[in-house]
Each structure stands twice: as structure tokens, then as C-alpha cells.
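Appendix B. Raw example, untouched.
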Amino acid sequence: MDRLRVSLPVAALIMMGAQTQLYGFGYHYHIKSGLPVIRWPPGIGWRAGEKSFPPGSTFRNGLVWSCAEWNVAPGNFAFGVANWGETSVKRGNGEDEIWFTTSQDVLQGAPAICYTWAFLSGGRVWYSEADIALNASVWWSPLTGLYDKVRYGGSNRPFMTTAMHEMGHALGLAHENRTYNLMGEDFTHLTANGGTMFVGAGEDATQGELFLYGIKPGIQSNDLGVSHWKYGGASGEYSVHTPTLVYVDLQGTVAYWETQIGFRRYHLRAGQVCIVEFTLTNNGINPYTVDVGYYISTNDSISTYDRRIATRSRAVYADWPGSVLQGLIIPADLTAGQTYYLGAIVDYTNKIPEYDEQNNATFLPIKIVP
């Protein structure tokens, strides 16, 4: 049996006879590469640094939530915490650990990094250890409030999106730069409604987990989502995400906007025709044709109690998230000078059972001008 033990960052190249890229197991990359499948035992119990995640801390709660968000996805891999009181965290000690540090020897200039240890056996790459180091100098927020986060007027990086990104590496996923996804720019891979952010593995990472580990038995395996972020291009091996837009014509002219609490607030007239854009995701396993409702609200909490101004049936497939356009007529009775919120709710009729209903609604602010 060939057995080679290695200790390298996820983003490193390893030469194992034929060239194998240890980080090259993101869903779309892996399917096309033909590289050996990575297999863990189907789960990791993190040993959390005692000083990093003390009892009663919001970071401890954030780590629990991050594991839970991975665990509701349909892939047959589970995360948990085996020990909260780890006093001696170290790379390569045979334990799966997570901690905060300021050591640049460990961090290599990154806000966070996942190290993995692997060996070759039976023509496959098997992971035997994972360690996640988080940069203690970064302004992190483990809370779900929206407006203290980067890209929303604040300066804090959302802890849960980055923790989930690094956990994606731990189960064998690559960086991905070709689609809107968790394994690209993680801190904008979220949806928001009512001043709260909602995070999850998302469509691309879920498909990678399913490919590597199969489906969890006996679980709810479907989930739909909508976001006001979309794929905006590639930056190296990472995807870049940009805000979805509001257009005023079929030629792609973007409505005039100004910044309001980190958002683009679009200027529109009462009675005006516009085209609104949102990203729809299918984070489960089954394709669906779903009903999407479009709403006007006086606040940033979109629900079916708000004024519905349009509906559209959309086909959503669990293979590639994409932004979709919808023409709308802004109601003629809205008040000039007031801020409203254009919202979308995917599966607004609630026909499809889902493992997460919190990510089904989001919004874009607009201001009614004379």
C-alpha cells in the first residue's frame, strides 16, 4: 500500500507521483479533473482552543452555528465540537483543531487558513487531520446582525461565513472562482432580511459535499434561497461577488443610486417600469419550478404580509446559481421622498418542504423620487 503523509496548507501543490492538487476538489473543478476522491471518516469533531472559545462567548455560539449550518446540508458529512478546552493547539499533532492566533508563521498573511494532512491509499487521497487557524487581528463578528458587517456599512468580517469556508476545505472542497459560492468570497456569500444575515453552505459547496460523501440518510434534502449578491468575476482562485442591480431599460442601464447603510439605494419614480435582479439558489438535490413573489415593503423585513406586485415561475437546478431578472411596475401610489424595499421571496406559496426557510427572502432599497 502506498502511503505518503504530507503537511501543507490547502492552497499548496503536492507531488504524489502524478501531480495532485490538494485544494483542487471543489465541485466544478473536481468533476472535470478526474483527480482521486478525498474521503474522511464522515465527520470532524473540532477541538476548540480554550482561550479562543471560552464558555459563554459569542464565538463559541458562532462555531456551533457554523457546524450546524453545514450539518443541515444534505451531504453525508457532519461537523461538531469534541472538546472546548483544548490548551495546546498545534498543527500536525493528530487532532482536528480550531483556534485564533496572531502567528504569521501559521497564518501566512491570511484572515484564516485550513491545514490538512493526507495520505495516498488505494488510488485515493485520504485526509487524516485538519486544523483551522483564524487571524485574531481581524475584526470578527460571530453575531447574525447585518449592519456591523463589511459591505453593509460596518467593519466586521462575519465569523460564520469564514469558518464555514475553512470547514469546506477540511471536508475536501477547493477554492472556486467561476460561480457565486462559499468557497470564493465567503463574506458576501449570504442572504439578508430584516437586519439579519443568514448563512449556509450554498449550492456549489453542497454539490461538492454530495459528490464526495453522498447524501445523509433520512434527512430533508431540499433548500431554496435568494440573495442580493451575485457572481461578479474571478480574482485568482476566488470568486468575487457584487450586488444585484436594478435596471431602468432593456439595454442594461442601471438606475441611479446612492449609498445607504452599505446598500445601493436606487432612485425610481412611482409608476416607473424597472427590472430587478436577484440570485436564486437551489441548495438541495431536486430540481424545481418555483413561484417567486416580488414585494414592496416600508421596511427591510420582507414577508408575504407585504404588498405583492408581481409573481414569476422559475426553474431552479442544483448545479449552478444564477441571477435572474424580473420586470416590475413600481406602484403609482408610493410617496415621493420615501424609502421602500423591493423584495423577493422564493417559494412564497410554501409548496416545497425545505431544511432552511430563513434564506427565502431578501431585498434591495429604493427611494421614490419626483
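End of appendix B.
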